Amino acid sequence: MKFQKKSPLKIFFVFLCFNNFLFPQIKTLDDFETSSGWSVFKSDGVNLTISNDIGLNGNAIRFDYDFTKGTGYGGIQKLFPIYLPDNYEFTFNIRAQSPSNNFEIKFIDSSGQNVWWVNNRNYDFPREWKKIRIKKRHINFAWGPTNDQSLKRINRIEFTIASFVGGKGTVWIDDLKFEPLAPETNIYPRPIQGTTSSIEPHNPGFVIDNVSNTYWLSDGVKEQFIFFDFLKKREFGGLKINWLTKYQAKSFEVLLSDDFINWEKVYSVAANLCDISFVRIPEAEARFLKINLSESSSLEGFGINDITFL
Fold first, then answer.
1. 0.70 exceeded by the pTM?
2. Exposure letters 221-253 (e unless 16+ CB within 10 A, then b)
3. Of all residues in the chain, what percent carry a pLDDT higher than 70?
């Protein structure tokens, strides 16, 4: 039986060009090209300095801290008056060379007395750049005299390191952004699939058809990937990939994007030996997901029975 080759990428790119999907308005609060407006605060026994350094995009703000007495806190704060919609998220990129101390992101009202926060205790700071998403549901009331503990407007944003193990370290932060979001939902449209290649009749649509005896099969093993357009941003905590027996990927990586141009690698495997892969990416959110397939168990191609978004 002779299979016919098919390239669904062309169809997808035509769709993407004419797609009238409207991306939400993302506001850059600070690109950190300078440290202007950021003030330093610290407790006794803590040394802390800020400067600009090479960032993920252009410059980043860098702060170096040292708990000289073993305990204390220190951080940076800046004025950002924002009226908050019903749903929203803040994002920023971070990397560090730091022991696992507490990492606190605080949102402070105009009185300066009422504080809401995300308190990451004994935080495992990433050594490589990592994008952090803070959604409305992640922010809790910390302290203050207000009777209304719902957060409707903020005046300042603060990044704080508080001692857990003490020591000293360096933290870089870049690209602080704010985005209004649609109401949270667990109902999403059926995604569009695309690949670098496929062999008919084994097209990529079979990986989400919930039928056990259908599958996608690539035409070759070089520079292969499969991707999904969710048609809107969606949240998920991971993937379950059921590989076609004898055609599973030995090595692969998972990438996310909001625009199909800029991709963030969130997971990679170098020596997969199983027919089923559970990919854990907690608090993931994206419009596009791509799986780059690097090495196959077969010389002929890659095969996937189905993929479930968990």
1. yes
2. beebbbbbbbeebbbbebbebbbbeebbbbebb
3. 92
